Amino acid sequence: MAQLDVDHLQLVLKVSERCNIACTYCYFFFKSDQSYREHDAVLSAANVEDVGAFLQREIARHAIKRVTIALHGGEPLLMKRARFRALLESLTQACRTIRLDLTVQTNAMLIDDDWIELFGVFGVRVGVSLDGPPEANDRARIDKKGRGTHARSIAGLRQVVEAAREGRIPEPGILCVMDPGADPVAAYRHFVDDLGVRHLDFLFPDDDHDSFDRSRAGEFGAYLVKVFETRLRRGDKDVRIRVLDHLQFLLNRTPAARADDRAAQRRVKVATISSDATLGIDDIIRSVAPERFNAFRPVSRTSLEALFSGAEGHRLREAESRRPAACSDCLWRDVCGGGVHVIHRHSLARGFDNPSIYCEDIKIILGRMVQVMHAAGVSYDALLENLA
Ligand code: SF4
């Protein structure tokens, strides 16, 4: 009998907790959670087996229908290829009766044809972290000697794009951390025109109320508006931009449909397995409040139920389910839900009971989207009804 109400498990698997570069904004190495120092550099061979056994056990126990695994780091390709292959075999075997989606998030600097062959065998989708052309990317994405990484990353990315064109691997994506000091239009053109990538995401930096520079409020919204308008003006219907597409999807949903979405979302569970094969909650949340969320349980001796019914599981549920008091009168509350990620609401003084640090930015982009929908013929009455 199922113990937890979970249809879809989203697992962040820390294949490696070391990196070959040192991006200045990295939440994993340069924020308050320093637990990586106590974890193995890469998953050991024994831990690879334990992770597979854990998954198989939990899928059967909770009747999980779908597993998504993001192979993460640090830099995941620091694991030797033979062990990476064994890991993919173990995960695939554990999930053989259900849907499994595998992605790897990499800086692409170590990619070669052997890696591509391996990704092809197991259908691994490659996500490359890149923040735009060299003058944008190399502001923060630097190696340990302070040198820019753009040229080395795009050398790997070009091989991935070519392999996808040949049908050898799934179509890759780019993850770009927004920097309002850089040119968003140049970033968009670089990704789409120069590199031929059509699946993009633009991420808000992983800050909270204690680390955010308030003088920047609104700059990220202006950045996103430029990206949104560029795609619109060019008519790039085949270019997907996850953050924008998600907000547009929510704007188009009726309140009842959004309530259904939220109910379905409650049956999605997110967990992280560290490189020492211990289970914990979403590691981005751990990065802002490690003292409240760090509890690492060996996968060989724990369960999802223990994780989500434990103290940090309760804290997480409370943070996610309780809308910040300051959001209750907001026009956008049902679409925004208090922000794109729960960590953006966090402060040491008030926990998660704050609006998002990107509140102003979200209002700017939603406002622009509504203007465009109205210009396309949707009445303001219909739009307001959807927001009610
Ligand atoms: S974070 Fe801001 S935009 Fe989002 S619901 Fe709260 S007040 Fe509204």
Please give the structural blueprint.
Layout: E1 8-14, H1 27-30, H2 45-62, E2 66-72, H3 81-94, E3 99-106, H4 113-122, E4 125-129, H5 134-140, H6 150-165, E5 173-177, H7 184-194, E6 199-203, H8 219-234, E7 240-241, H9 242-252, H10 255-265, E8 268-273, E9 278-281, H11 283-288, H12 290-293, E10 297-298, H13 304-309, H14 311-321, H15 333-336, H16 359-375, H17 380-387
Parallel strand pairs: 1-2, 1-8, 2-3, 3-4, 4-5, 5-6, 6-7
Antiparallel strand pairs: 8-9, 9-10
Helix pairs in contact: 2-3, 3-4, 8-16
The chain binds iron/sulfur cluster.
Explain briefly what this protein structure is.
It is built from 17 helices and ten strands. By secondary structure, it is α/β, with parallel strands linked by helices. The protein has a ten-stranded mixed sheet with strand order 7-6-5-4-3-2-1-8-9-10.
Structure in words:
The protein is built from 17 helices and 10 strands. It is an alpha/beta fold and 388 residues long. The protein has a domain at 8-265: Aldolase class I (TIM Barrel), CATH 3.20.20.70. It has a 10-stranded mixed sheet. Helix 3 (81-94) packs parallel to helix 4 and helix 8 packs parallel to helix 16 (359-375). The mean pLDDT is 93. Bound molecules: iron/sulfur cluster.
What keywords describe this structure?
single chain, 388 residues, alpha/beta, TIM Barrel, ten-stranded mixed beta sheet, 13% strand, globular, binds iron/sulfur cluster
